[in-house]
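Record format v2
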Amino acid sequence: MPTALLVHAHSERDSFVTAMRDRIAETLSASGHELIHSDLYEMGFNPVLSPADFGERGNPDHLVYALEQRHNFNAGTLAPDLVAEIEKVKQADLIVLTFPLFWFGTPAIMKGWFDRVFISGEFYGGKTIYERGGMAGKKASAAFSLGGREDMVGARGIHGPLVHGMLRHLFQGTLGYVGMEVIEPFVAHNIPYQPLEVRRKCLDDLGAYFADLDSKPRIPIPDLANFGPRFEQL
Amino acid sequence: MPTALLVHAHSERDSFVTAMRDRIAETLSASGHELIHSDLYEMGFNPVLSPADFGERGNPDHLVYALEQRHNFNAGTLAPDLVAEIEKVKQADLIVLTFPLFWFGTPAIMKGWFDRVFISGEFYGGKTIYERGGMAGKKASAAFSLGGREDMVGARGIHGPLVHGMLRHLFQGTLGYVGMEVIEPFVAHNIPYQPLEVRRKCLDDLGAYFADLDSKPRIPIPDLANFGPRFEQL
């Protein structure tokens, strides 16, 4: 039975984004997934990386976050909230993010989930990125809402391409970077300004999308075969 | 006398990023700027947007963040820490961000500074974005460090273009979006793995860069003359 981790960032129980998370949960459950949840607002997740994450220090004199992440994970001294989240990610076959898009990125509470949980060593290393990343073999996708209209993004839109442009930092640069196979996300445009029937239809479309997620396109990531041992282009 | 707001995100007093902030402060001070600071770790800035930001509610039944930002700012009921930050931005002629690059973005503590401080209404609106954004007339730039080598980004790099690619969400999609004229940032590559003399040289280069910041290239933003009243391409 495949396991799906739903990572959710919205403070309101009655929000559209929370309804999206719930519809995805129902859909994945119906298609035979076991579900685990990281509801970041509900958990009161702390997104601010700091020395308090480290129970001991590999180098007490000077802090390099990435090196202390490795040292503390291996020593078993990483903050317990992070160990728990890392275990959830490792247990999952599929990770799904649900969030409102703020400033062409995830809300800070989710950005900090990546900052603190996607630790150096387990998730990536100097040579272990993209298809060689620590989370290779897992899939990831997302569903997010944004205020802007659909015609404001894409090749002719004022902001340019969304998922493959403005949001490349997230889909290629974060989820793809750690080795996950990233499935094109579901995007809910202009939601605060839509009547109830349009929002209902959007949730139905979302359900249909996640019922058949595996058939959806993948986000392209760099092919390591085109690069040498120092990632120089061949 | 122009005013510069330095927004800084690093927990460590002895970090390279803090040394970058200090060098920028010295340089801008020497070139006649008055300085104001938002040292986010030192302030214990809370990056998590929530209903607690709003002293009252325009709509008590359903929360739409952007609408409550407008309502509460106008009613004088926005959280005091946000009012203070908004006033600093308004007072500044130049905003400079200093941070370590995490996951091709700012650390969560700075991402949440945008989420909470760059409020709807004052900073942007449905039709007031890019050159018509609320912060038009101000300049912005940044200096950031990252672990990766310089040859890993750019047209031939494995990650593709950095400032104009992976980081478009920040320079175009956030700073440019609210109307600021965005000056190409200073990028410090591969810093944790460099000897002291290379790091010293990098700080000298940074000083020279900010001593002559105005001569540096601008980040291109969409030209609104090419788009109609609904931002349709003309």
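Chain A has eight helices and six strands.
The longest strand of chain A covers residues 139-146.
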